[in-house]
Write a structure and sequence with these properties.
Elements (H helix, E strand, L loop, with lengths): L1 H20 L5 H7 L7 E2 L6 E2 L20 H12 L7 E5 L5 H10 L1 E6 L9 E2 L12 E7 L8 H11 E10 L30 H7 L3 E7 H9 L14 H7 L5 E5 L1 H7 L9 E5 L4
Parallel strand pairs: 3-4, 3-6, 4-5, 6-7, 8-9
Antiparallel strand pairs: 1-2, 7-10, 8-10
Helix pairs in contact: 1-4
The chain binds zinc ion.
Length: 288
């Protein structure tokens, strides 16, 4: 099993090593090195380029044939890099979906720590409960937290703890599934693929929870989603994926809280379609 993993990981690592010879050594260098005239698909995590991703256009699909990133992995990473000046950050990531090659690349680019709650679905450096972080105050500059907060019973306690461990000026990039306008508990017991219970189905009011905790917050989205909301659409142009309550989402979303960060070309090349599936909160602990 280990051998197969090594084999699969080789192209990712090799490409990053090869690009390092041309002084492409960080995600920011990679963005700067992109050929504006090219038009194929791009993976901003492993720097793969090709004709198209595998699977359908969906946040949980459009899989990179090399590193295995799905579209929401790429959006989270895109949000982090595009909203952050080039710097050596202390990065904590809770339950990264991608395996060892991804974590090795992150450790090459950042002072990187990966954590998980119970180490069942994810193997990481550190076991952490977001409600009780055994970490020092002000100890990280960036927290990446993809699809974890909905599995935490006490949202307020988790946000307090996250605020505490972020350095002043530090930011959390927070992704949760947003499938409805307002936050509620699930009506029936709900579990995600790795059998982890869902305690909260979040909506756009999460922005206000983050602000109550003291974070300076904006909700990052694609230009396409922003323009639909700005037009005031109440129906999505294409039939929505069944698990998304689009009428509720479009009623609950607040234009003033949205910040579009991905233009049409990047949205197409990294496959951030359809737009309503790509939302990431940037929550900053103000500098003192
Ligand atoms: Zn990739």
């Amino acid at each position: 099993m280990q051998k197969i993993t090594d084999l699969l990981s080789r192209p990712f690592a090799e490409r990053i090593a090869r690009l390092a010879l041309k002084d492409v050594t960080s995600p920011w260098d990679w963005f700067d090195s992109l050929d504006a005239r090219a038009s194929g698909s791009l993976c901003n995590i492993c720097w793969w380029q090709g004709d198209g991703f595998q699977g359908v256009a969906h946040s949980e699909s459009a899989t990179c044939p090399d590193c295995g990133s799905i579209a929401r992995d790429r959006f989270l990473f895109y949000c982090f890099i595009c909203c952050s000046p080039r710097k050596q950050y202390r990065v904590l990531e809770t339950s990264p979906r991608l395996g060892a090659p991804y974590r090795e690349a992150m450790a090459r680019w950042f002072d990187y720590t990966a954590s998980d709650f119970d180490e069942r679905a994810h193997r990481t450096d550190l076991q952490l409960d977001l409600q009780d972080l055994k970490l020092d105050d002000d100890s990280f500059d960036v927290l990446l937290t993809p699809h974890v907060l909905e599995h935490v019973p006490d949202t307020g306690r988790a946000l307090e703890e996250i605020y505490r461990i972020l350095a002043p000026g530090g930011r959390m990039f927070l992704q949760v599934p947003v499938q409805q306008g307002w936050t509620t508990p699930p009506l029936v017991p709900e579990f995600h693929g790795d059998r982890t219970e869902v305690y909260w189905r979040f909506g756009f009011d999460l922005t206000h929870r983050l602000r109550e905790q003291g974070f300076v917050t904006r909700l990052l989205c694609t230009d396409g989603f922003y323009h639909q909301v700005k037009k005031g659409v109440r129906r999505w142009p294409d039939p929505p994926s069944g698990e998304f309550d689009l009428p509720s989402m479009l009623a609950g979303v607040e234009l003033a809280n949205l910040t579009p960060i991905s233009d049409e070309e990047m949205t197409r090349r990294l496959c951030f379609h359809p737009g309503y599936m790509f939302l990431t909160w940037e929550a900053e602990k103000p500098a003192r």
